[in-house]
Amino acid sequence: MGAEFLQASVVAGSTCQLRLSGPSSRGLALLHGVEIALPNLPGGESLELDCGDWFLGYMDLQQLQELLQRRNLTLVALSSSNPRTIVAGAALGLVTKPNMLVPHGAQQPSSQPRPQEQQGGKAYLYEGCLRSGDCLDHGATVVVLGDVNPGARVSAGGDVIVWGRMRGMAHAGCRGNSAARVAALQLQPQQVRIASATALGPGEKAPPGRPEQAVQRNGQIVIEDATFLPTYTPGVRPWSPVAR
Amino acid sequence: MSSPNLGSHIDALKANNCRSIVLCSGKGGVGKTTLTANLGVALAKLNKKTCVVDADYGLRNLDLLLGLESRIVFTAQEVISGGCRLEQALVRHKHETNLMLMPAGNPRMLDWFSSEHMRTLITLLSESFDFILIDAPAGVEDGFKNAVAGASEAILVVNPEISSVRDADRVAGLLASQGTIDTIQLLVNRVRPRMVEKLDMLSIEDVLDILAIPLLGVVQEDEQVIIAANLGEPLALGKPKSPAAFAYGNIARRIQGEDIPIPDINAKHGGFVGRLGEFLSTKII
Q: Is ipTM beyond 0.85?
């Protein structure tokens, strides 16, 4: 395995960037490849890693970090379009930036541009359980297929939709969109933030089998039954229902 | 795993039909070391060649609980540095000949011992054992990562209290993203049925509700465990007279694949175990 999957770039005054592309490789193959490309990079810098769509586990990233450390390079940030890589990076304490190279729901007709797309990016899908300490951060709407456990955090520029139990911290509209909402099959968050408003969770157990949502009304965050009717909250619909 | 670096020990484990299980919890004091010692004994009693590996280099005491402290000559440190052969470092248990201990070296191992060393050690051990139990240190730092690096399965030890459950949740997330662990099972330790009944303690259901990890077993709080630890004779060695010793035996059999139902700890008169548990908790409170 050569270094053909690596692109190193250095822009004066900013962090080095290392991009992994092409077919994914892990473990020794990855380390050898990276080692070859490293002499092109100046030492003593902080480095940002673009993992493309590769799945790199916690151990892969840790070994990569050790290798870079030996070259006096500090891995500070990581971007990837693979949610599992993002979560592994966040577990290591790196700054993570999810990319949307492979947009979900690409089969949707593009004739009707949706509000979310204008805010940069389509809904971001995470499949799996977010556990304590995990942190998912994205500029568009975030959809989690699984539970968000106490101690986990989801923040989204758009809505936070959880197909499961929401028991962690949710921040919808983190870039100022106060029309964003937090919706879950069972909404029992520790804390909800919508744009700049903050509210503590309801404290009581959420009724099972009744999806709820938290929205901002007159600066107050209220919890109500979740509705996905297209006329309900104009402008913040995360997806268009089938044409009616 | 396709990569030789991460998966070498996994291949060796598969080839030698050996299972390497790490016991971890995140939080300290939940009973990882006690469980490692007792499950080691219980597996050995089932005629499985078992090795317990002390991966808690900073605060080692697995040797103490097994009563083997004075018999240690060489440690994992000498094995890795080439100072002795593997067999020289392994300490055989006094009574249970199927059980061996791989002792931890001095705390300076914290500085140089890496995940790669752990994988090497496990690869070596896999040739002569059916089961390897790794006692992980508390926390989620390097020591924990090293301990986990050698395992292909994990047992998450949790106490029915909110901080332990939260830490276990974090550890479960780390294990899932780690890459080589393919099975995680939950062991709820130090349960007090009487307190659960009065809603003063999280129930097994509460713990499972948050963690959503398959349940391997439940061990009740038992003062016999403390007495046994001080004597350096793991409770599982003797006859299962106490509920904890009974549970250790059952858990060991579940680990080796037997289908043994987990007794309902909340049942008031749930047979022998339930009555014993009730009797015991009256003594404690």
A: no
